[in-house]
Amino acid sequence: MLREDLQKVLKESMLAHDTATTSAVRLIIAGMKEKDVEARGKGAKEASEAELLSMMQTMIKQRNDSIKMYVDGNRQDLADKEMAEIKVIERFLPKQMDEQEVAAAVKAIIAETGASSMKDMGKVMAALKAQYAGQLDFGKANGVVKACLSGN
Description:
Layout: H1 2-15, H2 19-41, H3 49-72, H4 76-90, H5 99-113, H6 121-132, H7 138-150
Helix pairs in contact: 1-2, 2-3, 2-4, 3-4, 5-6, 5-7, 6-7
């Protein structure tokens, strides 16, 4: 589904001469192809949807880091370009979970996996990534998991 959506948006943006969208979608497709090559090395035909969503989350984080550097360096033009790319990438991601939804998801996964201490952190994070890829910020979820497992 995601792959077809990307190709469709690429064609539409090219026909509309929307260079910003075309450029951003091409970056996503290039990343997708890299993930497919990685997956073939592991014996799969292509990267899973969860892996692609995770890749796009990483792309957004990279652009946010770049925006901060550009703003600090008084390069608003480049920051604006990065913000436009983020908007295009976000079109392909599912709705992001808010803090309450993240907390509820973490508690559900902890109960599901039977996690009881910080030793189980990896198991909980792996289950979250498998079930909620692209829907939540795993950096923030990490803090929630630590708080829940440490008893705070």
